[in-house]
Amino acid sequence: MALGKAIKGLAADCSAVLSKVFEGFWAKAFQAVLSLAFLVAIFSAPHLIWPKMDVKMSNAQMSRYDGRLTLVSFDLANGSYLDLKDPEVACDMKGESGTSIKTVSKVIYEILPSERKQSFSDIEMGLIPDQVAYFNCYVSSASVKW
Question: What are phi and psi of 8, to 5 degrees?
């Protein structure tokens, strides 16, 4: 009889200890899951609010029409996970010394599908000043197509 009471008492003590251990464990586990969910929300929110716009220009070629008009041909690669629209292309025209003579820009009212490359040819960028020796074109902005 005394042995039975001792075993029951030992079982009750073990049960109480284990419930305290797991009570603390589950509370900490729940707190860890909430913290992880909070971190995911914090780090993913900027990608939803301010999505990555990764547009790269390649194969840019400038030509002159009638010696004065600038025509630019290039490829645009959209490396973002969203479709983009209306990229603005800017070209810095520089003289022999490297001084910027003129900067021109033009919005191309097209959609750039996500993770694809698109070619544009003979985009008119305006008149070329006489002293322009070389140019540098780049994408200055683009919008997300929601």
Answer: -60, -40
